[in-house]
Specification:
This is NAD-dependent sorbitol dehydrogenase. This protein has ten helices and 20 strands. With about 375 residues, it is of the alpha/beta class. The protein folds into two domains: about 170 residues, Medium-chain alcohol dehydrogenases, catalytic domain (Quinone Oxidoreductase, Chain A, domain 1), CATH 3.90.180; about 130 residues, Rossmann fold (3-Layer(aba) Sandwich), CATH 3.40.50.720. The strands form five sheets. Strands 3, 7, 8, 11, 12, 19 and 20 form a seven-stranded mixed β-sheet that branches. Strands 15-14-13-16-17-18 form a six-stranded parallel β-sheet, with helices on both faces. Strands 2-1-6 form a three-stranded antiparallel β-sheet, with helices on one face. The radius of gyration is 21 Å and the shape is globular. The relative contact order is 0.16.
Length: about 375
Protein backbone atom coordinates (compact mmCIF):
# COMPACT_ATOMS: atom_id res chain seq x y z
CA UNK A 1 0.00 0.00 0.00
CA UNK A 2 1.34 3.40 -0.93
CA UNK A 3 1.41 6.74 0.82
CA UNK A 4 -1.14 7.12 3.58
CA UNK A 5 -1.49 3.32 3.85
CA UNK A 6 -1.08 1.04 6.80
CA UNK A 7 0.73 2.20 9.87
CA UNK A 8 2.39 -0.32 12.16
CA UNK A 9 -0.18 -2.35 14.03
CA UNK A 10 -2.89 -1.82 11.38
CA UNK A 11 -1.75 -4.48 8.95
CA UNK A 12 -2.82 -8.07 8.62
CA UNK A 13 -0.53 -10.61 10.22
CA UNK A 14 1.37 -11.88 7.21
CA UNK A 15 4.58 -12.74 8.98
CA UNK A 16 6.17 -16.10 8.56
CA UNK A 17 8.44 -18.26 10.65
CA UNK A 18 10.13 -21.59 10.96
CA UNK A 19 8.97 -24.69 12.78
CA UNK A 20 8.58 -23.95 16.49
CA UNK A 21 7.97 -26.63 19.11
CA UNK A 22 6.81 -28.98 16.39
CA UNK A 23 4.28 -26.52 14.92
CA UNK A 24 4.84 -26.16 11.19
CA UNK A 25 4.61 -22.52 10.12
CA UNK A 26 4.95 -20.80 6.79
CA UNK A 27 8.48 -20.35 5.50
CA UNK A 28 10.40 -17.22 6.50
CA UNK A 29 10.66 -14.84 3.54
CA UNK A 30 12.97 -11.92 2.81
CA UNK A 31 13.69 -9.34 0.10
CA UNK A 32 16.87 -10.46 -1.68
CA UNK A 33 18.92 -8.10 -3.83
CA UNK A 34 19.94 -10.20 -6.84
CA UNK A 35 21.25 -7.53 -9.21
CA UNK A 36 20.86 -3.90 -10.23
CA UNK A 37 17.24 -2.91 -9.42
CA UNK A 38 16.43 -6.60 -9.03
CA UNK A 39 14.75 -7.44 -5.73
CA UNK A 40 12.91 -10.71 -5.15
CA UNK A 41 11.03 -11.99 -2.13
CA UNK A 42 12.45 -15.46 -1.54
CA UNK A 43 12.86 -17.91 1.36
CA UNK A 44 15.39 -16.96 4.03
CA UNK A 45 16.58 -19.67 6.40
CA UNK A 46 17.43 -18.26 9.80
CA UNK A 47 20.45 -19.38 11.83
CA UNK A 48 19.92 -21.39 15.00
CA UNK A 49 19.05 -19.38 18.09
CA UNK A 50 22.13 -19.00 20.30
CA UNK A 51 21.92 -18.62 24.09
CA UNK A 52 22.33 -14.82 23.85
CA UNK A 53 20.14 -14.38 20.77
CA UNK A 54 16.50 -13.50 20.19
CA UNK A 55 14.21 -14.19 17.27
CA UNK A 56 12.29 -11.10 16.21
CA UNK A 57 9.18 -10.83 14.04
CA UNK A 58 9.80 -7.62 12.08
CA UNK A 59 6.94 -5.14 11.87
CA UNK A 60 8.55 -1.91 10.61
CA UNK A 61 11.52 -1.62 8.23
CA UNK A 62 12.70 1.64 6.69
CA UNK A 63 14.64 2.24 3.47
CA UNK A 64 17.97 4.05 3.91
CA UNK A 65 19.99 5.94 1.33
CA UNK A 66 22.64 3.22 1.45
CA UNK A 67 19.95 0.63 0.62
CA UNK A 68 19.05 2.71 -2.43
CA UNK A 69 22.72 2.88 -3.48
CA UNK A 70 22.93 -0.91 -3.27
CA UNK A 71 19.64 -1.23 -5.16
CA UNK A 72 20.75 1.10 -7.98
CA UNK A 73 24.47 0.34 -8.20
CA UNK A 74 25.15 -2.87 -6.23
CA UNK A 75 27.54 -0.84 -4.10
CA UNK A 76 27.70 1.98 -1.56
CA UNK A 77 31.14 3.60 -1.45
CA UNK A 78 33.49 0.63 -0.90
CA UNK A 79 30.78 -1.83 0.16
CA UNK A 80 30.11 -3.94 -2.95
CA UNK A 81 27.34 -6.52 -3.36
CA UNK A 82 28.97 -9.57 -4.92
CA UNK A 83 26.31 -12.20 -4.24
CA UNK A 84 22.59 -12.26 -3.41
CA UNK A 85 21.92 -10.41 -0.15
CA UNK A 86 18.90 -9.67 2.03
CA UNK A 87 18.60 -5.89 2.09
CA UNK A 88 17.68 -3.46 4.88
CA UNK A 89 18.93 -2.34 8.31
CA UNK A 90 16.39 0.06 9.86
CA UNK A 91 13.97 -2.07 11.82
CA UNK A 92 11.78 -2.80 14.81
CA UNK A 93 9.62 -5.75 15.74
CA UNK A 94 8.26 -8.08 18.38
CA UNK A 95 10.23 -10.71 20.27
CA UNK A 96 9.13 -14.23 19.35
CA UNK A 97 11.72 -16.34 21.14
CA UNK A 98 14.67 -15.72 23.46
CA UNK A 99 17.87 -17.65 24.05
CA UNK A 100 18.56 -19.38 27.35
CA UNK A 101 20.87 -16.59 28.62
CA UNK A 102 18.66 -13.62 27.64
CA UNK A 103 17.13 -12.13 30.79
CA UNK A 104 16.04 -8.59 29.87
CA UNK A 105 13.56 -9.53 27.13
CA UNK A 106 10.57 -11.87 26.86
CA UNK A 107 8.33 -12.92 23.97
CA UNK A 108 5.89 -10.15 23.16
CA UNK A 109 8.29 -7.28 23.91
CA UNK A 110 8.42 -4.60 21.22
CA UNK A 111 12.02 -3.76 20.34
CA UNK A 112 14.19 -1.58 18.11
CA UNK A 113 17.23 -3.37 16.69
CA UNK A 114 20.72 -1.90 16.47
CA UNK A 115 21.91 -3.48 13.21
CA UNK A 116 25.68 -3.84 13.72
CA UNK A 117 27.32 -6.80 15.48
CA UNK A 118 30.91 -5.97 16.47
CA UNK A 119 33.55 -8.47 17.55
CA UNK A 120 33.77 -6.98 21.10
CA UNK A 121 37.41 -8.11 21.29
CA UNK A 122 39.50 -5.76 19.15
CA UNK A 123 41.12 -2.59 20.51
CA UNK A 124 38.48 -0.35 18.91
CA UNK A 125 35.68 -2.33 20.53
CA UNK A 126 37.44 -2.28 23.90
CA UNK A 127 37.83 1.50 23.60
CA UNK A 128 34.07 1.84 23.06
CA UNK A 129 34.43 2.73 19.38
CA UNK A 130 32.80 -0.48 18.24
CA UNK A 131 31.26 1.25 15.21
CA UNK A 132 34.75 1.19 13.69
CA UNK A 133 35.28 -2.55 14.32
CA UNK A 134 36.92 -4.09 11.26
CA UNK A 135 34.97 -7.31 11.81
CA UNK A 136 31.59 -5.57 12.08
CA UNK A 137 28.67 -7.62 10.76
CA UNK A 138 26.08 -5.02 9.78
CA UNK A 139 22.57 -5.76 8.53
CA UNK A 140 22.34 -5.35 4.77
CA UNK A 141 25.97 -4.34 4.27
CA UNK A 142 27.79 -6.81 2.01
CA UNK A 143 28.33 -9.64 2.62
CA UNK A 144 25.89 -9.65 5.56
CA UNK A 145 22.18 -10.26 5.14
CA UNK A 146 19.80 -7.57 6.33
CA UNK A 147 16.40 -7.26 7.95
CA UNK A 148 13.75 -6.79 5.25
CA UNK A 149 12.30 -10.13 6.23
CA UNK A 150 9.48 -11.63 8.22
CA UNK A 151 11.86 -12.66 11.00
CA UNK A 152 15.52 -12.36 11.97
CA UNK A 153 17.78 -13.75 14.67
CA UNK A 154 19.83 -11.07 16.44
CA UNK A 155 21.87 -10.65 19.65
CA UNK A 156 19.59 -9.80 22.56
CA UNK A 157 21.88 -7.01 23.78
CA UNK A 158 21.31 -5.18 20.47
CA UNK A 159 17.53 -5.20 20.91
CA UNK A 160 16.11 -2.28 22.90
CA UNK A 161 12.65 -2.39 24.46
CA UNK A 162 10.38 0.38 23.23
CA UNK A 163 8.66 2.71 25.70
CA UNK A 164 4.88 2.26 25.71
CA UNK A 165 4.29 5.55 23.87
CA UNK A 166 6.84 4.85 21.10
CA UNK A 167 5.53 3.04 18.03
CA UNK A 168 7.30 0.34 16.08
CA UNK A 169 7.76 2.74 13.16
CA UNK A 170 9.43 5.24 15.49
CA UNK A 171 11.57 2.38 16.79
CA UNK A 172 12.78 1.67 13.26
CA UNK A 173 13.63 5.37 12.93
CA UNK A 174 16.16 5.03 15.76
CA UNK A 175 18.70 3.86 13.18
CA UNK A 176 18.78 7.01 11.00
CA UNK A 177 18.27 9.19 14.07
CA UNK A 178 21.35 7.57 15.59
CA UNK A 179 23.45 9.02 12.77
CA UNK A 180 22.34 12.55 13.66
CA UNK A 181 22.86 11.97 17.38
CA UNK A 182 26.34 10.51 16.87
CA UNK A 183 27.25 13.47 14.62
CA UNK A 184 26.08 15.96 17.26
CA UNK A 185 28.07 14.17 19.95
CA UNK A 186 31.20 14.16 17.78
CA UNK A 187 30.81 17.88 17.07
CA UNK A 188 29.96 18.73 20.72
CA UNK A 189 26.73 20.52 19.82
CA UNK A 190 25.27 22.38 22.80
CA UNK A 191 23.21 25.44 23.74
CA UNK A 192 25.90 27.76 22.35
CA UNK A 193 26.32 26.07 18.96
CA UNK A 194 24.95 27.71 15.82
CA UNK A 195 24.53 24.99 13.23
CA UNK A 196 24.47 24.76 9.45
CA UNK A 197 23.19 21.55 7.87
CA UNK A 198 24.08 21.10 4.20
CA UNK A 199 21.62 18.67 2.66
CA UNK A 200 17.95 18.27 3.59
CA UNK A 201 17.59 14.59 2.82
CA UNK A 202 16.57 12.09 5.52
CA UNK A 203 19.94 12.25 7.30
CA UNK A 204 20.12 16.03 7.11
CA UNK A 205 16.64 16.25 8.61
CA UNK A 206 17.37 13.89 11.51
CA UNK A 207 20.58 15.84 12.12
CA UNK A 208 18.43 18.96 12.35
CA UNK A 209 16.16 17.25 14.91
CA UNK A 210 19.14 15.95 16.89
CA UNK A 211 20.91 19.32 16.93
CA UNK A 212 17.78 20.97 18.27
CA UNK A 213 17.43 18.28 20.96
CA UNK A 214 21.06 18.93 21.96
CA UNK A 215 20.18 22.60 22.45
CA UNK A 216 21.45 24.33 19.30
CA UNK A 217 19.83 27.81 19.35
CA UNK A 218 20.02 28.54 15.62
CA UNK A 219 19.93 26.00 12.79
CA UNK A 220 20.06 26.76 9.07
CA UNK A 221 19.59 24.15 6.34
CA UNK A 222 20.83 24.49 2.74
CA UNK A 223 19.61 22.31 -0.12
CA UNK A 224 18.91 22.36 -3.85
CA UNK A 225 15.33 21.10 -3.50
CA UNK A 226 12.45 23.41 -2.59
CA UNK A 227 10.26 20.58 -1.28
CA UNK A 228 12.97 19.39 1.10
CA UNK A 229 13.55 22.95 2.33
CA UNK A 230 9.85 23.34 3.10
CA UNK A 231 9.97 20.13 5.13
CA UNK A 232 13.08 21.36 6.96
CA UNK A 233 11.29 24.58 7.82
CA UNK A 234 8.26 22.67 9.10
CA UNK A 235 10.57 20.58 11.31
CA UNK A 236 11.95 23.65 13.02
CA UNK A 237 14.83 25.01 10.95
CA UNK A 238 15.27 28.70 11.77
CA UNK A 239 16.08 29.50 8.16
CA UNK A 240 16.60 27.69 4.86
CA UNK A 241 18.86 28.64 1.96
CA UNK A 242 18.30 27.44 -1.60
CA UNK A 243 21.60 26.49 -3.24
CA UNK A 244 22.66 25.13 -6.62
CA UNK A 245 24.88 22.29 -7.74
CA UNK A 246 27.30 24.73 -9.39
CA UNK A 247 30.52 25.12 -7.39
CA UNK A 248 30.96 28.59 -8.91
CA UNK A 249 28.02 29.75 -6.75
CA UNK A 250 29.65 28.90 -3.42
CA UNK A 251 30.79 32.42 -2.51
CA UNK A 252 27.36 33.94 -3.12
CA UNK A 253 25.57 31.15 -1.25
CA UNK A 254 27.96 31.33 1.71
CA UNK A 255 27.21 35.06 1.95
CA UNK A 256 23.49 34.22 2.21
CA UNK A 257 24.14 31.63 4.90
CA UNK A 258 26.33 33.95 6.93
CA UNK A 259 23.72 36.68 6.68
CA UNK A 260 21.04 34.54 8.35
CA UNK A 261 23.54 33.26 10.94
CA UNK A 262 24.90 36.64 11.98
CA UNK A 263 26.92 35.25 14.89
CA UNK A 264 28.70 32.81 12.60
CA UNK A 265 28.46 29.09 11.90
CA UNK A 266 30.02 27.14 14.77
CA UNK A 267 29.40 23.66 13.32
CA UNK A 268 28.50 22.60 9.81
CA UNK A 269 27.21 19.11 9.06
CA UNK A 270 27.80 18.08 5.45
CA UNK A 271 25.00 15.55 5.02
CA UNK A 272 25.47 15.20 1.26
CA UNK A 273 29.17 14.52 0.68
CA UNK A 274 30.10 16.17 -2.61
CA UNK A 275 32.88 18.55 -3.68
CA UNK A 276 30.39 21.40 -3.75
CA UNK A 277 28.90 20.68 -0.32
CA UNK A 278 32.22 20.26 1.51
CA UNK A 279 33.50 23.46 -0.12
CA UNK A 280 30.38 25.24 1.10
CA UNK A 281 30.80 23.79 4.58
CA UNK A 282 34.43 24.83 4.94
CA UNK A 283 33.77 28.28 3.50
CA UNK A 284 30.72 29.00 5.68
CA UNK A 285 32.11 27.82 9.02
CA UNK A 286 33.66 30.46 11.28
CA UNK A 287 37.39 30.40 12.16
CA UNK A 288 37.97 27.79 14.84
CA UNK A 289 34.68 26.03 14.06
CA UNK A 290 33.99 22.43 13.10
CA UNK A 291 32.90 20.67 9.93
CA UNK A 292 31.44 17.20 10.40
CA UNK A 293 31.38 14.89 7.38
CA UNK A 294 28.18 12.84 7.49
CA UNK A 295 27.07 12.16 3.91
CA UNK A 296 28.94 9.93 1.46
CA UNK A 297 27.88 11.20 -1.96
CA UNK A 298 31.33 10.73 -3.53
CA UNK A 299 34.09 8.23 -2.82
CA UNK A 300 36.74 10.95 -3.18
CA UNK A 301 36.51 14.71 -2.75
CA UNK A 302 38.82 17.65 -3.43
CA UNK A 303 38.87 19.95 -0.41
CA UNK A 304 39.92 23.60 -0.28
CA UNK A 305 42.76 24.17 2.17
CA UNK A 306 41.27 25.31 5.48
CA UNK A 307 43.64 27.85 7.02
CA UNK A 308 41.33 29.12 9.75
CA UNK A 309 41.83 26.27 12.25
CA UNK A 310 38.61 24.57 11.25
CA UNK A 311 38.44 21.05 12.63
CA UNK A 312 37.22 18.51 10.06
CA UNK A 313 35.77 15.44 11.76
CA UNK A 314 34.16 12.36 10.31
CA UNK A 315 31.53 9.97 11.52
CA UNK A 316 30.84 6.37 10.61
CA UNK A 317 27.49 5.02 11.71
CA UNK A 318 27.16 5.46 15.50
CA UNK A 319 27.86 4.04 18.95
CA UNK A 320 25.71 3.66 22.08
CA UNK A 321 22.87 5.81 20.72
CA UNK A 322 19.71 3.71 21.05
CA UNK A 323 18.95 4.53 24.72
CA UNK A 324 19.19 8.27 24.02
CA UNK A 325 17.14 7.95 20.81
CA UNK A 326 14.38 6.19 22.71
CA UNK A 327 14.45 8.75 25.51
CA UNK A 328 14.19 11.62 23.02
CA UNK A 329 11.24 9.87 21.37
CA UNK A 330 9.55 8.95 24.68
CA UNK A 331 9.83 12.48 26.03
CA UNK A 332 8.67 14.11 22.82
CA UNK A 333 11.89 16.07 22.53
CA UNK A 334 12.21 14.60 19.03
CA UNK A 335 9.29 13.72 16.75
CA UNK A 336 10.29 11.58 13.78
CA UNK A 337 6.74 10.77 12.64
CA UNK A 338 6.58 13.61 10.07
CA UNK A 339 9.59 12.11 8.29
CA UNK A 340 7.66 8.93 7.38
CA UNK A 341 6.08 9.99 4.11
CA UNK A 342 5.30 6.68 2.39
CA UNK A 343 4.22 3.25 3.63
CA UNK A 344 4.14 -0.09 1.85
CA UNK A 345 3.30 -3.68 2.69
CA UNK A 346 5.58 -6.66 2.09
CA UNK A 347 4.63 -8.06 -1.31
CA UNK A 348 6.79 -8.39 -4.41
CA UNK A 349 5.00 -5.52 -6.12
CA UNK A 350 5.14 -3.26 -3.06
CA UNK A 351 8.83 -3.93 -2.40
CA UNK A 352 9.69 -2.92 -5.96
CA UNK A 353 7.44 0.16 -5.81
CA UNK A 354 8.84 1.21 -2.42
CA UNK A 355 12.45 1.16 -3.61
CA UNK A 356 11.58 3.02 -6.81
CA UNK A 357 9.75 5.62 -4.72
CA UNK A 358 12.71 6.06 -2.38
CA UNK A 359 15.16 6.22 -5.30
CA UNK A 360 13.19 9.04 -6.95
CA UNK A 361 13.60 11.25 -3.88
CA UNK A 362 11.50 14.40 -4.17
CA UNK A 363 8.82 14.37 -1.48
CA UNK A 364 9.76 10.86 -0.35
CA UNK A 365 11.69 11.31 2.88
CA UNK A 366 11.39 8.01 4.74
CA UNK A 367 9.77 5.07 3.00
CA UNK A 368 8.58 2.50 5.54
CA UNK A 369 7.49 -1.12 5.21
CA UNK A 370 4.75 -2.43 7.51
CA UNK A 371 5.18 -6.19 7.63
Amino acid sequence: MGKGGMSDGDHADRCCGEAINGDVQQENMAAWLLGVKNLKIQPYKLPNLGPHDVRVRLRAVGICGSDVHHFKNMRCVDFIVKEPMVIGHECAGIIEEVGSEVEHLVPGDRVALEPGISCKRCNLCKQGRYNLCRKMKFFGSPPNNGCLANQVVHPGDLCFKLPDNVSLEEGAMCEPLSVGIHACRRANVCQETNVLVVGAGPIGLVTLLAARAFGAPRIVIADVNDERLLIAKSLGADAVVKVSTNIEDVAEEVAKIQKVLENGVDVTFDCAGFNKTITTALSATRPGGKVCLVGMGQREMTLPLATREIDVIGIFRYQNTWPLCLEFLRSGKIDVKPLITHRFGFSQKEVEEAFETSARGGNAIKVMFNL
